[in-house]
Amino acid sequence: MLRLGLEQLSVFGLPPVAFVNLAADLGCECISTALTAMPYNPHGYPAFSLREDAALRREMIAALRDRGVAISLGEGCNIRPNQSVSDMARDLDLFHELGTERINMVSLDSDLERSLDQFAQLASMAAERGMDSTLELCPALIIGDLAAALAAVRHVGRPDFRLLVDTMHFARSGATAADIAALDPALIGYVQLSDAPLRPRIESYMQEATFERMAPGEGELPLREMLAALPEDIVVSLEVPMRKEAEAGIGPEIRLRRCLEATRALLAA
Predict the structure, then answer these.
(1) What Cα–Cα distance (Å) separates residue 12 from each residue in 69, 141, 159?
(2) Residue 57, CB-side half-sphere exposure with 13 Å CA sphere
(3) N or C: which end of the chain has fewer CB within 10 A?
């Protein structure tokens, strides 16, 4: 059965317990989280570190339990040049402590062969802790299209290492809803939902992806067709960072309620 979630990028530094409560108040079943807040913080939230603050981890675990929310995705597990994923062992332990269901990977390394081997090692480390893994393609990175992502999944060769479909990245890479429908459903592990124009609005792809996405239905992506092609038992989580609205003083509850209403209408259609 499909589960609705909220991604940490959508809330620009909202502290963990408040994020859990917001998700529950908006009727969402899950959230993503990194172990630290992102640097961009237009609302002036207090800094936090789930990595360093054991009391905060306990508070978040209690909030997750009390509000019926799960951590569907652990973020920040990135492949980097000159850094081994073996250094992430403690972070994976902490994600496991928090009850995280899966971690997500991207590679910031331009060495494709090394990236593939690091994906395999990190997926194995996550599995040892009872977590699945996903791989996110992004046109600005070395795993930039569906063919490259599928090759990486084949290289790793694990049923618990699957594709993350970010609707903006997926469509901008040239993939279509028909490509989703043609995949073995078992290959799709997670969906990050947002809308966007089909062509970039600003020069920097990553700036647009990180700060300037649109509510479902407000852009040009074929979201209805993409959602219809997905497996039914999957997380669809809203990744809709809206910097202009945040800087205009519009808080995450108002921003995300609108996005969720649009998402529920799309799913009903």
Answers:
(1) 19, 23, 33
(2) 18
(3) N
* Architecture in CATH for domain 3-268: Alpha-Beta Barrel (3.20)
- Reported as a pLDDT band with limits 50, 70 and 90, residue 202 is confident
User: Could you tell me the pLDDT band of residue 199, with boundaries at 50, 70 and 90?
Assistant: confident
Residue 186 Rama label (left phi>0; alpha psi -120 to 50; beta): alpha
| Chain centroid offset of residue 46 CA | 23
Per-residue pLDDT of 222-240, as tens digits, reads: 999 999 999 989 999 999 9
Smallest CA-to-CA distance from 180 within 229, 146, 227, 137 is with: 229
Question: How high does pLDDT run on average in the chain?
Answer: 96
23 neighbors 31 (Cβ within 8 angstroms)? yes
Q: Which residues pair with 71 in a beta bridge?
A: 31
Contact 30, 12 (CB under 8 A): no
Q: Which of 245, 238, 239 is nearest to 264 (CA)?
A: 238
Domain extent listing, the chain:
3-268
